[in-house]
Design brief:
Layout lengths: L31 E7 L2 E8 L7 H13 L1 H8 L9 H13 L4 H18 L4 H16 L14 E6 L6 H14 L4 E6 L6 H12 L2 E3 L6 H14 L4 E6 L7 H17 L6 E7 L4 H14 L3 E5 L9 H8 L4 E5 L7 E3 L2 H8 L2
Parallel strand pairs: 3-6, 3-7, 4-5, 4-6, 7-8, 8-9
Antiparallel strand pairs: 1-2, 9-10
InterPro entries: AAA+_ATPase (IPR003593), P-loop_NTPase (IPR027417), Signal_recog_particl_SRP54_hlx (IPR013822), SR_rcpt_FtsY (IPR004390), SRP/SRP_N (IPR036225), SRP54_GTPase_dom (IPR000897), SRP54_N_sf (IPR042101)
Family: Belongs to the GTP-binding SRP family. FtsY subfamily.
Subunit structure: Part of the signal recognition particle protein translocation system, which is composed of SRP and FtsY. SRP is a ribonucleoprotein composed of Ffh and a 4.5S RNA molecule.
């Protein structure tokens, strides 16, 4: 699935006879939930397939993803340029995976899977072992592949956290564009009152995406969040996105502020927040995994947005997350443009990494 938003087809529409573009009704068996809109009225979440699309725009994204992951993948792919599969190849593969910040546990899993399947299949050529690694990596990453569900609640309240520099506010801007393009009305909450100019930065994104924003100069972050959720419900918005202050998980007083924001959001809407997302920088490798663990303990994360995968040698961190803390990855990013943030697909990522 490559769109977490889908319009409900008219009741009289006949099912398509051939694979349809990304915006058409699916013909494959259902596999994942998402919500949809007809005009401004929410419809029930629908079942949509998770099979990769073949639309030209998706292929363009895959090309950018492959280019972005080249620094990580090339060191791993070099392992398979020899003539035979032997102990030396496995040693080089183990070292390459660890250097890519795949982590000890995930590296051990992948190495054992490759060895087992090579032996079972009787493979003798390194290219065969590489294809087996692609399958093993896909298997490992599959639990991270889950769509963001919009439409079950109105408004759907999304709380976004992350350390300074991870690309949190920019990712919110890109996510807002995705949602708006899908037909959702979005309200932004500028609850990042800790960082200078954060409110102004979010206001720029609100203006670019032509959505409303709730902010207060020097206001209390929890109060801003409460006002935004209340306003979102009163104005009939489909989504409220709460931008919180960037902080390190070691800043205990600031982490407590995040907990307070979550509690206050719940006071404004009993079932909210419906999503708690963490934006992590793919360049930080194993440190990103530690962030996931710390923020999940504090907030109960429901999903991740992984940014800045372009040019990093540490793209293997997604395998480490899948092995040690398998929280869904809703989006990954490989650049600064709006189209450089896309939904995560395990098979696509594995193929792009080892292209």
């Amino acid at each position: 699935m490559f769109s977490f938003f889908r319009k409900k087809p008219a009741p009289t529409s006949a099912p398509p006879a051939a694979p349809a573009p990304a915006t058409a009704a699916p013909t494959a068996p259902p596999a994942a939930k998402t919500g949809g809109l007809i005009g401004s009225a929410l419809v029930a979440p629908m079942e949509v397939p998770v099979a990769p699309a073949v639309a030209p725009e998706r292929q363009s994204w895959l090309n950018r993803l492959s280019d972005g992951l080249r620094k990580t993948g090339s060191s791993i792919s070099l392992v398979f340029t020899g003539a035979t599969i032997d102990d030396a190849l496995y040693e080089e593969l183990e070292a390459a995976l660890l250097m890519a910040d795949t982590g000890v546990a995930a590296t051990e899993f992948l190495l054992n899977e490759v060895k087992r399947k090579v032996q079972a299949s009787g493979a003798t050529r390194p290219v065969q072992a590489k294809n087996i690694l692609v399958d093993a990596l896909t298997q490992l990453l599959k639990p991270l592949e889950k769509p963001l569900v919009i439409g079950e609640r109105q408004p759907t309240v999304i709380m976004v956290a992350g350390v300074n520099g991870a690309g949190k506010t920019t990712s919110i801007g890109k996510l807002t564009r995705h949602l708006a393009d899908g037909g959702a009305s979005v309200l932004l909450a500028a609850a990042d009152t800790f960082r200078a100019a954060a409110r102004e930065q979010l206001a720029v994104w609100a203006d670019r995406n032509r959505v409303e924003i709730v902010s207060q100069e020097g206001g209390d972050p929890a109060a801003v969040s409460f006002d935004a959720v209340t306003a979102g419900r009163a104005r009939g918005k489909n989504v409220v996105i709460v931008d919180t202050a960037g902080r390190l998980p070691t800043q205990l007083h600031l982490m407590e502020e995040l907990r307070k924001i979550k509690r206050v959001v719940t006071k404004a809407e009993a079932t909210a927040p419906h999503e708690v997302l963490l934006v992590i920088d793919g360049n930080t490798g194993q440190n990103a995994l530690q962030q996931v663990k710390a923020f999940d303990e504090a907030l109960g994360l429901t999903g991740l947005v992984v940014t800045k995968l372009d040019g990093t040698a540490k793209g293997g961190v997604l395998a480490a997350i899948a092995q040690e803390k398998p929280i869904p990855v809703y989006f990954i990013g490989v650049g600064e443009k709006l189209e450089d943030l896309e939904t995560f697909n395990a098979r696509e990522f594995a193929l792009a990494l080892l292209a």
